[in-house]
Amino acid sequence: MCGIIGVVGASDTLATLLEGLERLEYRGYDSAGVALSGAGGTWRARAAAGTESVLALKLECEDAPTGFRTGLGHTRWATHGAPEAINAHPHLDCAGNIAIIHNGIIENHGELQEELESRGHVFTSVTDSEVLAHLIEEARAAGQDLTEAVRTSLLTVRGAFALAALDATEPDVIVAARRVSPLVVGTAPGVTYLASDVPAILDKASAFYAVNDDEIVRLGPEGFRAIDLEGAPVRLRPLSIDWDLETAQKGGYDDFMTKEINEQPDALRATLLDRRHRDNVITFDEMSLSDDELRDVTRIVLVAAGTSYHAALVAKYAIERWARVSCEVDISSEYRYRDPVVEIGTLVIGVSQSGETIDTIQATREAQRRGAHVVAVSNVVDSSLAREANAVIYTRAGLEVSVASTKAFVAQVAALELFALRLAQLRGTLPERDVEALYLGLQAVGAQVAVALSRRDDVTAVADALAGARDFFFLGRHVGFPTALEGALKFKELTYLHAEGYPAGELKHGPLALIEPGVVVVVVATDPSVHEKILSNISEVKARGASVVAVATDDDETISSVADFILRVPATEPMFSPMIDIVPLQIFAYATARGLHHNVDRPRNLAKTVTVE
Ligand code: F6R
Question: Atom 16 (ligand 1): residue with closest C-alpha?
Answer without folding.
Answer: 352
